[in-house]
């Protein structure tokens, strides 16, 4: 018997999650009740109503997360509580349409919120960034009807969205079954999937070269999470592997497809507009790299001013570490580079926002315009990668040996950046940008450009 397609508009209850051995297993998750006072406060305040108030809300969430970030990093529990905080704060809705209860903000503001949350906890900043990208997938590759339907579903229900779309793995295979599509396959990485309400799937229709995106409820038997994320950094991002077993999707939920004719809609899945998903998420990366680095410097500043001791054998001895030349020099250098990285990243954020405003309705963007934006994003990716690695490693030079204690947790910033900056080699971004500058060639869209 073939599986029946899930009606995504129906409510659903999460079943027990199964491990790779198919045995029901309890995995330790953080407790949402620890944030009860904050949930109540956010509910009382309601959603922010301006760009400035959204930035302040992101700052409040970052401050809450920063208080025990090192302890939560060590505990490595599934971030149920942390995602509940993102939900009650309203940050999951920041880009959503106002008519459905969203914040109505642009990507420019969304990126800054990601960055701010990442200052307090890189994993949760990453989860917010991925959610915002996946929650807008239908806006970029869906029909107008799908765009409206899925935005309403996500925003009105305050859903958290994950994505099983790791391009380096084999594509999920999609089989037709009457008015349904059946997805099968596996992905080594599925960020946030375990604690998501919805998941974006992507695969290739069997016998064709056609790729199809679909948004489906995560809480169904066809999702088999391995619970195997135990890397050195971004430990609360739940980026482990998942198997997709006979997940059925109505043809009407195939994003950007004509369900009756069962063909891609050429005016929706147009190149290059549909490929704007890629520079959009690349800039998500840059923003949480930058946020993590900024958070590391703020954390280090607090440690240096309260705990770092002056070096007594330098020949120009000072009473306080904050008077030492090399410490002042390092802080000045780190601060300058972060300001420069922030300016470039903000410029790219404006460019992404502008291209969606200018072309979001007609979906008619030239390869040149798309390419220029992608290369501005690539520039930000290069600079934020280099700068964040430099700063998160260098802060130990200005805090001292005692700052390497596991209870201090200063190492988490470097570990977080180091893990994700290997996502796609920045060397290829340098080469790509070199061809653009030297030869005036805009890049061909790929899964990473």
Automatic annotation (TrEMBL):
Q: Where is the Acyl-CoA dehydrogenase/oxidase N-terminal domain?
A: 65-150
Q: Does the keyword Oxidoreductase apply?
A: yes
The molecular function terms of the Gene Ontology recorded here are: 3-methylbutanoyl-CoA dehydrogenase activity; flavin adenine dinucleotide binding
For the keyword Flavoprotein, the answer is yes
Q: Which InterPro entries match?
A: Acyl-CoA_DH_C, Acyl-CoA_Oxase/DH_mid-dom_sf, AcylCo_DH-like_C, AcylCoA_DH/ox_N, AcylCoA_DH/ox_N_sf, AcylCoA_DH/oxidase_NM_dom_sf
For this protein, the record's Pfam families field holds: Acyl-CoA_dh_2 (PF08028), Acyl-CoA_dh_N (PF02771)
Residues covered by the Acyl-CoA dehydrogenase C-terminal domain:
283-423
GO BP terms in the entry = L-leucine catabolic process
Top-rank taxon: Eukaryota
Which keywords describe this protein according to UniProt? Flavoprotein, Oxidoreductase
Q: Which SUPFAM superfamilies does this chain map to?
A: Acyl-CoA dehydrogenase C-terminal domain-like, Acyl-CoA dehydrogenase NM domain-like
What is the name attached to this protein's record? Acyl-CoA dehydrogenase NM domain-like protein
Give the species this sequence originates from. Answer: Aureobasidium namibiae CBS 147.97
């Amino acid at each position: 018997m073939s599986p029946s397609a899930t009606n995504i508009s129906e409510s659903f209850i999460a079943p027990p999650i199964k491990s790779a051995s198919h045995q029901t297993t309890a995995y330790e998750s953080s407790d949402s009740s620890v944030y009860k006072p904050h949930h109540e406060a956010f509910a009382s305040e309601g959603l922010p109503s301006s760009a400035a108030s959204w930035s302040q809300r992101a700052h409040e969430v970052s401050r809450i997360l920063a208080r025990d970030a090192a302890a939560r990093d060590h505990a490595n529990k599934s971030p149920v509580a942390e995602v509940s905080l993102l939900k009650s704060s309203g940050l999951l809705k920041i880009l959503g349409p106002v008519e459905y209860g969203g914040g109505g903000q642009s990507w420019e503001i969304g990126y800054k919120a990601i960055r701010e949350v990442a200052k307090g906890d890189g994993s949760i900043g990453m989860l917010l960034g991925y959610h915002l990208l996946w929650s807008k997938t239908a806006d970029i590759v869906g029909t107008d009807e799908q765009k409206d339907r899925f935005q309403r579903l996500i925003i009105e229900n305050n859903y958290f969205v994950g994505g099983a779309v790791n391009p380096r793995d084999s594509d999920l295979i999609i089989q037709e079954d009457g008015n349904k599509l059946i997805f099968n396959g596996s992905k080594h990485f599925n960020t946030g999937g375990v604690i998501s309400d919805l998941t974006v799937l992507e695969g290739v229709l069997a016998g064709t070269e056609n790729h199809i995106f679909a948004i489906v409820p995560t809480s169904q038997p066809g999702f088999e999470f391995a619970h195997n994320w135990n890397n050195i950094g971004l430990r609360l991002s739940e980026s482990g592997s998942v198997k997709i077993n006979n997940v059925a999707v109505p043809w009407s939920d195939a994003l950007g497809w004509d369900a009756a004719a069962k063909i891609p809609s050429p005016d929706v899945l147009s190149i290059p507009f549909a490929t704007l998903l890629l520079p959009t998420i690349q800039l998500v990366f840059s923003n949480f790299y930058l946020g993590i680095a900024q958070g590391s410097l703020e954390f280090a500043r607090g440690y240096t001013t309260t705990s770092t001791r002056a070096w007594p054998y330098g020949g120009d001895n000072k009473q306080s570490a904050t008077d030492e030349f090399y410490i002042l020099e390092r802080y000045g250098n780190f601060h300058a580079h972060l300001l420069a990285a922030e300016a470039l990243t903000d410029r790219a954020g404006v460019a992404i926002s502008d291209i969606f405003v200018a072309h979001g309705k007609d979906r008619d963007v030239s390869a040149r315009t798309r390419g220029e934006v992608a290369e501005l994003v690539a520039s930000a990716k290069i600079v934020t990668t280099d700068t964040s690695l430099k700063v998160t490693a260098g802060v130990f030079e200005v805090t001292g040996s005692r700052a390497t204690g596991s209870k201090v947790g200063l190492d988490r910033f470097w570990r977080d950046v180091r893990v994700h900056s290997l996502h796609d080699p920045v060397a290829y971004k340098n080469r790509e940008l070199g061809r653009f500058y030297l030869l005036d060639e805009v890049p061909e869209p790929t899964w990473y450009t």
